[in-house]
Amino acid sequence: MARMTASCCRANSRRLAARLQEAGASARLVEYPALGHVEIMLGLSSTLAGNSRLMSDLLEFLGQGAP
Known about the structure:
- With 67 residues, the chain is mostly helical.
- It has helices spanning 6-22, 37-43, 52-64.
């Protein structure tokens, strides 16, 4: 089974954002260099919320879709 590294995921995210922008979509890439997938998921937990920037960015993102 292949294991994704943080640098691989960041490269994929950068390519996805670039392709979306090239296609005319609105895309904003936000990177959290010190956080991996697990840390991000734990940071979204109400009991383990330790990264206020992550939560703030998420709430801002979710609010963009509100009518």
